[in-house]
Write a structure and sequence with these properties.
The complex is a heterodimer. By secondary structure, chain A is an alpha/beta fold. Chain A has nine helices and eight strands. In chain A, helix 2 crosses helix 3 and helix 4 runs antiparallel to helix 6. In chain A, strand 7, helix 8 and strand 8 form a beta-alpha-beta unit. By secondary structure, chain B is of the alpha/beta class. Helices cover about 40% and strands about 25% of the residues of chain B. In chain B, helix 1 crosses helix 7, helix 2 packs across helix 3 and helix 4 crosses helix 5. Chain B is globular, with a radius of gyration of 18 Å. The chains are: A alpha/beta, B alpha/beta. Chains A and B meet through strand 1, strand 2, helix 1 and helix 9 of A and strand 1, strand 2 and helix 1 of B.
């Protein structure tokens, strides 16, 4: 295996891993979630890259601007900038290594980035691991979130009148970011609920109102190839997500992995995920080759 | 010296082979060509496993702060962690990785090279300097004095959380997806044995980020007294910060960044 680091304009850092005998074969681009770095949680993408190389497939993983090793301000990172970075990374991979087939593998919020980028890039297949669906605007879900956020806000208010809280604040032992996050979440939820009678507007370019299936159908409409959705059974949203994705038109395969959490945080879970997803990718390649 | 703007620094990735078949991934953050100051280089050694994951961006902010002051910094992943290849083997493998990184940086940078380690990384840096006799300054952030105890506590807490399991024969511990072989745990336990820094080490800066309990403070002091010869200049300070190596999100570390920049530039001048 050979590792080739690269830097894109704007300070995006990434690594290409390719087998020594790679000749315009198949390629995979890994897309990380909201935080963390391109190795992925518990270096799942690093391990996966090595396995892909053993099978003759090259891969790229990169850090979004404001994340990992890439330059840029953390606060300036949005789904928009992440989408731009992904498009650039895919373009770099295509220009430099010219893979015959290209697949995207994303984790958590990376799935939103992938789906947002599909209007600008064409890929042959998608693997979505624990795709984030929290932006799905559903009245019931919003009310549940509002209740949870309201409970946190009441708890913070009660703590605010205790002298001990202010002492801890002075000592720097209070996580102010969590408090700010909850306040902003309340505000956002309030706005969503206020507008929920009609189309919900948002700063995200691909959010639409209506049923979750319509949301994902709209996002996947730009993608002509198959999609493999991987969910962990210990993910609290797994059942709902599995039902939602299974009902989508087009070729969407859904697999719920037993005893796995959202990030597949164990050696066995990682191995199983890598094995199954790699098999699925290989099967897709063979079918696509047989179809020509 | 004037602080450079963010646009005047650059980041580049590098791969180096320190042992056959093992590629280490390193990132250099430095002023763009033409804006270098004779401040030398800083090599940042990461903490252990998930602590590296949580502290990633904070260490990167230190590197950016150094670069904006004209000092280039290098950050790398030990073999079997992060973006480096290979598996976690024994503690000596990581000492070899560190040696390899120092040689790699020395070939490409302006001397002197300073070593900066966070938590377990600080211990690794001391063990590396003791073994190889590198003539460099050391900055130890919240250093771990007893790595065996550190690993044991880490595994204990994650076992309670259900994130760590042990294989039936006890040979491998699955810690959050990292396979930790018995040989590694045993080599970490052996690593503690009486390391002493050579006289060639310039200065040692010890930065505490948390207020330790009295017993912890005593244990650390005993270790430092045995570690640092009396001929080596030693400086200690405290920068209160949340434990960013085990919490989600970015910790604003301006105070720490400023302290480290000042320390590096003081020596350079």
């Amino acid at each position: 295996m050979k590792l080739e680091p690269f830097t894109l304009p704007g300070g995006v850092l990434g690594i290409t891993a390719f087998p020594r005998e790679f000749r315009a074969g198949c390629g995979v681009v890994f897309v990380n979630g909201w935080s963390g770095n391109c190795a992925g949680p518990h270096r799942i993408f690093s391990v996966w890259s090595e396995r892909l190389c053993q099978g003759g497939t090259a891969s790229v993983r990169f850090d979004f601007r404001g994340r990992g090793d890439s330059l840029g301000s953390e606060d300036a990172t949005t789904v928009y900038t992440m989408t731009e970075d992904l498009v650039e990374a895919v373009q770099y991979f295509r220009d430099r290594h010219r893979p015959r087939r290209l697949s995207l593998v994303s984790l958590c919020s990376g799935s939103l980035v992938v789906l947002g980028a599909l209007s600008k890039i064409r890929v042959d297949s998608l693997v979505l691991i624990s795709p984030a669906a929290e932006f799905v605007p559903d009245g019931g879900q919003v009310r549940r979130e509002l209740r949870a956020a309201g409970s946190h806000a009441w708890s913070y208010t009660r703590k605010a009148i205790r002298p001990e809280t202010w002492r801890r604040l002075w000592q720097g032992r209070i996580d102010l970011r969590s408090i700010v996050f909850e306040v902003l979440r309340l505000r956002r939820l309030g706005l969503v609920l206020k507008n929920s009678s009609g189309p919900i507007r948002s700063s995200h370019p691909v959010l639409v109102s209506g049923e979750p299936s319509a949301y994902w159908t709209n996002l996947l409409s730009h993608h002509l190839g198959p999609t493999f959705v991987c969910l962990g059974s210990r993910d609290p949203n797994a059942k709902e997500a599995a039902a939602s994705f299974s009902g989508l038109p087009g070729r969407v395969d859904v697999r719920v992995f037993e005893n796995c959490d959202t990030t597949f945080a164990s050696v066995d879970a990682q191995e199983t995920l890598i094995l199954e997803a790699s098999r699925w990718l290989k099967r897709e390649r063979l079918e696509a080759g047989a179809g020509r | 010296m004037k602080t450079l703007s963010r646009g005047a620094i650059e980041a580049t990735g590098h791969c180096l082979e320190t042992r056959p078949g093992v590629a280490l991934y390193a990132v250099r953050i430095a002023p763009r060509a033409g804006k270098r100051a004779p401040g030398g280089s800083v090599l940042i050694c990461p903490p252990l496993l998930e602590e590296q994951h949580w502290s990633y961006r904070t260490l990167q902010s230190i590197a950016v702060a150094l670069a904006r002051s004209g000092v280039e910094s290098w950050r790398f992943d030990l073999s079997g962690t992060g973006n480096s290849s290979g598996q976690i083997g024994v503690f000596e493998d990581w000492l070899s990785d560190l040696d390899g990184m120092i040689s790699f940086v020395a070939e490409r940078s302006v001397a002197p090279i300073r070593l900066l380690g966070l938590r377990f990384g600080a211990f690794l840096v001391c063990a590396g300097a003791a073994r190889s006799g590198h003539a460099c300054d050391l900055a130890l952030l919240e250093p771990v004095s007893d790595p065996e105890r550190h690993v044991r506590q880490m595994l204990h807490l994650s076992t309670l959380a259900g994130s760590t399991t042990i294989s039936r024969d006890g040979s491998v511990i699955d810690h959050l997806g990292y396979p930790l072989p018995r040989e590694w745990r045993e080599s970490v336990a052996d690593a503690r044995a009486d390391i002493v820094l050579p006289d060639t080490v310039g200065r040692v800066l010890i930065v505490s980020l948390q207020k330790p309990r009295a017993s912890g403070r005593e244990a650390l002091e005993r270790w430092l007294s045995g570690l640092i010869p009396s001929t080596v200049e030693r400086e200690e300070c405290h920068v209160p910060l949340p434990p960013f190596w085990n919490r989600l999100g970015l910790t604003v570390s301006c105070l720490l960044n400023d302290l480290l920049v000042g320390w590096v530039r003081e020596r350079a001048s």
